[in-house]
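Reopening: structure tokens for the flavin-adenine dinucleotide complex, inputs below.
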Amino acid sequence: MEFGLSEEQEQIRDEVRRFAENEIVPNAEKYDTEEKFPHEIVDKAAEMGLVGSSIPIEYGGAGYSTLESAIIAEELFSHDPGIALSIMACSFGTEAIREFGTEDQKERFLEPVATGEKISGAAISEPDTGSDVSSVSTRAEKDGDEWVINGNKMWITNGTVGDFFVVFCKTDPDADGRYDGFSQIIVESDRDGVSSDKITGKLGIRASDTAELIFDNVRVPEENLVGDRDAAFLQQMHFFDATRTGVAAQGLGIAKGALEAALDYAEDREQFGQSISEFQAIQHKLSEMATETEAARNLTYKAAWNVDQGNDITKLASMAKEYASRVAVEVSNEAVQIHGGAGYVNDFPVERFYRDSKITQIYEGTTEIQKNVIARELLDD
Amino acid sequence: MKILVTVKEVATVEDEFEIEGTEIAEQYLGADLNEWDDYAIEEAVQLQEDGIADEVVTVTIGPEDCEQTVRQALAKGADRAVRVWDDALEDVDLLDVNAKTEILSAVVEAEDPDLVLSGVQAGDDSFGATGVSVAENLGFQWGAVVNHLEHDFEDGLASVRRELEGGVEELTDIELPAVLTIQTGINEPRYASLRGIRQAQQKPLDVQTLADIGVDESDIETELELTDMYEPESESDATFWEGSPDETASELGDLLRDKGVAQ
Ligand SMILES: Cc1cc2nc3c(=O)[nH]c(=O)nc-3n(C[C@H](O)[C@H](O)[C@H](O)COP(=O)(O)OP(=O)(O)OC[C@H]3O[C@@H](n4cnc5c(N)ncnc54)[C@H](O)[C@@H]3O)c2cc1C
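Re-run output (same inputs, fresh job):
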């Protein structure tokens, strides 16, 4: 059994930390307050290869695995989740192209994402479709050698800044099974009939762009179909273990960042003539926060390692996602508490961590859905 | 053109620390690539990207622990690395400029570069002499505190701009082979790219002993002795306020009144 990181992984973490400290931290408050997508920082991140870290080397990426991606996510999210997501989500949706796309699609869509020329997105959720993906109603119909797409997608990360989206569409409304008859189709944002509406007023990750996408008789060539027709569910399920582990790493990073901020503050702040870190009540908070963060790390890394071994880990990935996101919320909550009034305003990063943490319990399958999955796996065994 | 860049892993110190004897206590120390060397590496890599350098080699004196730091330079684009270490060096308390000069000169002779780039100084022991001393020892030309380097090298000359005291700068043409000590700010060092980090793991990192490079143990003995280390007493305190100009101005007013400076 081997619990350590390799030298290469340590180097990745160190360099990502350097980047985050210099480029992200000084700008975090601004982008959060303005709810603005951090193009300038994303461009620098792209130069460093952070946006396409998991895209294969031959398409301009670094070809890093789930564990390395988790390390990168942990480090970025521990500095600022909103900007971190803006960077890491630049390649959302490309996993399907990587795994099931044609050579031509890989060249057209993976390379420009790896180099930062283009931003992608994954469009699954709809106004009436969230946890129950099988109720997707966005329709793609074949007309000659084109797909004609109609429908609305909701909560789409990168919705107003993305250059293309991998859109989850219903292609066979008469399919028998609940999970049959869906396809993944690439839609470029400059196609006629595509419009987007930015969603503002988010609780957290406000630097990250979220929007509603509207497809009104959008025509794309048939070669924009990713993988097999009517097989979207099977294709997408293929990535659940990796994507859930990815969000676990986000939660872990938020917990780590909040813990570090709380430690610093506790040592600095004095009341009753002593550092508040001398009070046992504060010490116990810090102990629990650190222990929970470490436990989240172990679950996350274990899940990531297993994904990289090619193991099926439905239950473990859901456990990591559910637990790490809960720890993110709990630890950032306690971090605000340790800051007292100072934690309630944005002079310190914990206020942001607290708001940002909540999303990790919602997207990529809510906490309740993860628990459903875990229970199903437990009881089926 | 072949470029050799000297790099060093330096000790970094936390804001709050304690001194034990003549050393800063271990628990307050970290390690990082020397800041000046980061600029030297960047300059070399840019020369390579401009098609002027065809090989960039780094050399470091240090134990195995510092390989991760050395790989940073490889990740940023250097082609290969040489690391010199020896049991004899393990026991040396203070590796002085003389010893470094002996070791680095031996590597320069073996590698035969056209240009050697070193940092102006190392952030920890700050001798600020190694680069120039190596040049002197080898009979190379040298330029110290270089903050701009022309990338054309016409007639085998390095045209450099050097930073002098009092905001004065001078332009000098230096004949190759030469050693340039690089000042921070000469360029903007890049982050190592993830691809670069990945590729760096496959780049050669040769480890050489003193015997391998033909340096005798007696050549590295030092006549320097570190006798004390302490934090200077501060004679006055600086007060620092954070906040908006409105808030800080009134706090400053209060302080000046308290001190009897203002009424
Ligand atoms: C900032 C942000 C970014 C997002 N980015 C994207 C994106 O890029 N692409 C994309 O496709 N989507 C994205 N989403 C959407 C996200 O994946 C959904 O919000 C999420 O899946 C939950 O769906 P919903 O909001 O419709 O909630 P609902 O499914 O309506 O859930 C409401 C509540 O009911 C619970 N619930 C639902 N079903 C069950 C059940 N069977 N058992 C127990 N409880 C249940 C849920 O857990 C939740 O508590 C994003 C959302 C946000 C907020």
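Chain A has three domains: 7-115, 120-230, 234-380. The longest strand of chain A covers residues 146-157. Marking as resolved unless the reporter disagrees.
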